[in-house]
Amino acid sequence: MTDLRTTVESYWAAADARDWEAFASLLAEDVVYTLPQTRERISGRERYVAFNREYPGDWHARIERVVAESGHAVSWIRLTVGPEEMQAVTFFTAGEDGRITTVTDFWPEPYEPPAGRERLVERY
Amino acid sequence: MTDLRTTVESYWAAADARDWEAFASLLAEDVVYTLPQTRERISGRERYVAFNREYPGDWHARIERVVAESGHAVSWIRLTVGPEEMQAVTFFTAGEDGRITTVTDFWPEPYEPPAGRERLVERY
Lengths: 124, 124
Hints:
Chain A has three helices and seven strands, in the order ααββαβββββ. Chain A is of the alpha+beta class. The radius of gyration of chain A is 16 Å and the shape is globular.
């Protein structure tokens, strides 16, 4: 059984390469995808692969960090679409056979900091 | 040495209780806090404790999930302020003595899903 860190690395490599066969092979048939920010949920491998295959834009993903333990992992990725960069954080769980059973994505957007803490922070 | 999962649980418990002495005891003296969404950075335990102590609002944090491995951890929390709920994802690293050396926070906001994927998703 492949460890979940390797599975998560393969997940992003397959998505980045639009290799949907390889991508599907990492997923449990009853995988559940959840987007808490929109309260959307997708159930089942076929629908989840379709969602990714149809996702618009010439985006590319680069892994910043993966944290993994038995059955659980998290990736932090940088996703570029042309000159734009976004960051995403994704929680994974896997079953006993190592396939991904749940995927939960967060897409945090840039925002302007509130006033009042300038003496403590620097901007980068 | 306490494992990092326990340290992260203590971090949120101390913050929730506004126990800044306990909170500070979990941090390396040269801890660096980073907020990628605002491109803010805070360097040093004293400033980082001050930032948290001064943070406005009667917020309360509840841990949804912690994923931890040697030297790295991630928490997913639900933070309530009165009737409002937010979610946050925080990456941690720790030094050899188990104290937290870096904290990187993401605060994803709710948004409306784009049109065109309704046949694949359900809302919850």
